[in-house]
Amino acid sequence: MATTDIFSESFETIRRYPATLVPYLLLEFLVTGLIALLVYSVAPGLAAQEMQSTGFIATLLAIIVISIIVGILLTPLFYGMYTSLQVQKIGKKRLSLENAYAAAKERYASLLGAGLINLAVNITLIALFMAIPIYLLVSNSAELHTLTGSASTGDKIGLILGIIGIAGIFAVFLIICLAVVVIYFFQYVPVLMIEKRGAWDSIKRSISIGKANFWSILGTLILFFVIAGAGYFVIGIVSTPFQLAGREAAVLVQLFLSAIFGSIIYPWYIMLMTSFYNSYVKKVK
């Protein structure tokens, strides 16, 4: 099956059964829409002193923490649900959200465990790549201060460009490493749901699939993220004219459109993983 066929097969589920998007749409409005709406509608009306107060910062941090926790706890459930729905569709069974929820609930502990492992790997990579340049800057701060104080304008510009260049090199390597992680972890949810493996076994199996199908997965991901990026770019353009009605109006429009688009693109991504499994790994019955 060609890459375009995988995309069309997975998107057909959404096109023919749009009601399956409702649960994720509710999550989008709960976590992304309502919380962000609260922040953006309250913050502009606050005085600068109030925004710098401990109470405001604590409230903002609490909102961020709550949204992260809700996302971590609910995302595995949706991953399992939409994988199960796509399995039903491929197997030409009647699509049932109730059955999909039951299947995801049964595998929830493993889904959550695998998701946390995935999250830990990504956080560790980001922390390591951020820690190295920060350490270099801090450990050489005295020398940099002396140099910037006595150097000519040209040397200062060269120093700034050098720092930017080093940061850029680390950023490129970080992006490459994160991309490899996404490729290797691309199939852990279908493996976990279809093959009924545990969290760690699913990740090991996904890594093996990623190694065997590296370029196919990379091509699939590039095409998907181009589509997703184009969608969010269009949303940004559409919401721009609302700047005339005020910054808050533009933010509200962008949040509303992003929530709707997110409720399509992310379930599609999960179903795409399942269609890839069906095409490249093992036929789903």
Would you mind describing this structure in some detail?
The chain has 285 residues and is mainly alpha-helical. It has one domain (3-116, 187-281). It is built from twelve helices and no strands. Helix 4 (54-90) runs parallel beside helix 12. The longest helix is centred in the first third of the chain and has 37 residues, at 54-90. The mean pLDDT is 80.
The general outline is globular
Strand-pairing-aware structural class: mainly alpha
Beta-strand residue percentage: under 5%
Average pLDDT taken over every residue:
80
Number of domains: 1
Relative helix content: over 70%
Number of strands: 0
Main beta sheet = none
User: Could you state the order of secondary-structure elements as H and E?
Assistant: HHHHHHHHHHHH
Distance between the termini: 16 Å
Instruction: Using the CA coordinates, give the radius of gyration.
Output: 23 Å
**In DSSP terms, counting alpha (H) and pi (I) runs of 4 or more, how many helices?**
12
Which blocks of ≥5 consecutive residues have pLDDT under 50?
Answer: none
